[in-house]
Write a structure and sequence with these properties.
Helix content is 0%, strand content 50%. With 123 residues, it is mostly beta strands.
């Protein structure tokens, strides 16, 4: 049984920073492709960033240059460092893991999901 637990969300002013963490149990994240997604009220879940098993990273255009995904194998944790936050970054942020294939930007291709953590950016 794989469980993902996100933490690190909160309320921050525009221009501020947050670091989200995704801790896994039941599987090594270094053996998985892990993604961060977000969902704002009334909107579909959207891709934010992914880190492949081999360490390759991809970021959505909307966050490129501001957000960085990384992995710490010793802690079995994937992070999302978010800088220069904007009001439009407000959403529930989810981490997800998939066992097969490569990193993916499509939510439906992921096997496991965390419960989400709320990020609210005030303008």
């Amino acid at each position: 049984q794989v469980q993902l637990v996100e933490s690190g969300g909160g309320l921050v002013q525009a221009g501020g920073s947050l670091r989200l963490s995704c801790v896994a149990s039941g599987r090594s994240l270094s053996s998985s492709n892990v993604g961060w997604f977000r969902q704002a009220p009334g909107k579909e879940r959207e891709f934010v960033a992914t880190i492949w098993r081999n360490g390759i990273t991809t970021h959505a255009d909307a966050v490129k240059g501001r957000f960085t995904i990384s992995r710490e194998n010793a802690r079995n944790t994937v992070y999302l460092q978010m800088n220069s936050l904007k009001a439009e970054d407000t959403a529930v942020y989810y981490c997800a893991a998939r066992n097969s294939g490569l990193g993916s930007t499509q939510p439906a291709t992921y096997d496991y999901w965390g419960q989400g953590t709320q990020v609210t950016v005030s303008s």
